[in-house]
Amino acid sequence: MKTRSSFIKLKAIAFIIGASLFSGSVSAQSQTLTLKDAIKYALENKADAKKAKLEVENSEYQIQEVRSRALPQISANGNITYNPILQLNALPGDFFGAPGTTILAPLGQKWTAGGGVSLTQNIFDQAVFTGLKAARSTREFYQINAQLTEEQVIERVANNYYEVFVQREKLAVIDSNYVNTTKAKSIIQGQFDNGLAKKIDLDRITVKLYNINTQRQQLINAVQLQENALKFYMGMPIETPITLPKTEFEVTPQALAEAPNTATRTEYLLIEKQEQLLDFQKKSIIAEYYPTLSLSAGYNYLGQGPEMPLFAKPADGVYWSDYSTIGLNLKIPIFTGFGTRARVRQADVDLRKIQADKEDTKLSLDLAFENARTQIENSLITIKNQKENAQLAQEVLDNTRNNYYQGLAPLTDLLDAENALVEAQNNYTSALLEYKLAEIQLIKSKGELRTLTN
């Protein structure tokens, strides 16, 4: 029996020493990560944030593409043609000194070559003008969308940051419980060796130690999984060790009285910009009813002869000449089979749908603020109660432990008091988490998530 108890005691000591060494090595090698640091890292490295910035950059190129339709379109062309068999044309014989007859005569030359430059310039095209306005709105849309993406990254990182902290706090509670229970077991072991304690008490405290160790392993795994999730949302390599300072989990007062202006929220601004783009889409379809006017011009050079005109001379029978054209092109739509009208009506339906979405978005944002405010108020009450409860549970445990060691209380009371303290401490930590998560939602509902980077 002494051998078994000695083995258990050595195992407990090894566990404590190993945990201390593990904590020391981690803190020595870990990167201390405040919430501000985590968010800044995510905004610079997370793929979602990078892609949103690229979308903004791409919108500039989309504007250039639309603008090109209002600029001159210039192209060069060239061709060379060989006619093995020339087409015969029926001509009056009068041209050849044979009146009253018809003569089949070939027209053209065996070789022709040409080259030139053509220009087209839109003078009036309502669709182009509308497209330019829509392109600028598209850039603003992607800028707002990038801001929304950054806010979503901030929210995910903050939520997971606090989740990691809670898991680590629960692990600290279980570690403290293990140390205290180990001390109690050592005392019971001494009492048992001296015939002052029952074997069942020693066995029960030993079983509890094993259970605590199992819970600890589960929490270690939970901490690791939660840290991996945080690093993923940050865009940080998973193998990077991190440490979270406890100052990041303090309860800070929040302004709860004044409701935020929903119209300034990024989600609302984005849907407003979508509505504007759909309005431009409708206008671009209506522009198809308008006439279009464009200028075209061209200058060409043509060579003909029995030989390949390139590098040939008049002495070879090859002659070159130039010609040019300038024209105005007017297109007036008259009837399109009601296709344009149908597409205008479809665009109008899309506008009415986005207006309904806008009203629903406003209602959703108002709901989020009210829910966050209610959760904040309730969490503050819960935190106060759980903090007092944890303090009371600590006092009960101290008194029960003292009574047990003096033989005035059974082991059951001691184990129940320890369990009550662990539960109270975990409830307090969970209440803090609920508060911090509600705090994030409240800050989000005010449109102030970016302040978390300050």
Unreliable residue runs: 1-28
> Whole-number radius of gyration?
41 Å
Structural class per helix/strand content? Answer: alpha+beta
CATH topology (fold) name of the largest domain: Outer membrane efflux proteins (OEP)
CATH superfamily of the largest domain: Outer membrane efflux proteins (OEP)
**CATH top level label of the largest domain:** Mainly Alpha
Tally of structural domains? 2
What composes the largest sheet?
Answer: 4 strands, antiparallel
Care to count the β-strands? 8
Report strand %.
Answer: 5-15%
| Proportion in helices | 55-70%
Question: Ends: how far apart?
Answer: 61 Å
CATH architecture of the largest domain: Up-down Bundle
Global outline:
elongated
Topology:
Elements: H1 2-29, E1 31-32, H2 35-45, H3 47-68, E2 73-82, E3 88-92, E4 102-106, E5 111-124, H4 126-193, H5 199-234, E6 242-243, H6 266-286, E7 292-305, E8 319-331, H7 339-405, H8 411-445
Parallel strand pairs: 1-6
Antiparallel strand pairs: 2-5, 3-4, 5-7, 7-8
Give the key terms.
single chain; four-stranded antiparallel sheet; alpha+beta; about 450 residues; TolC-like; Outer membrane efflux proteins (OEP); coiled coil; two-stranded parallel ribbon; elongated; 8 helices; 2 domains; transport
Short overview:
This protein is an alpha+beta fold and 454 residues long.
What does this structure look like?
There is one protein chain. By secondary structure, the protein is α+β, with helices and mostly antiparallel strands. The chain folds into 2 domains: 2-70 and 125-290 and 333-453, Outer membrane efflux proteins (OEP); 71-83 and 104-124 and 291-332, Outer membrane efflux proteins (OEP) (Single Sheet). It is 63% helix and 14% strand. α4 (126-193) runs antiparallel to α5 (199-234).
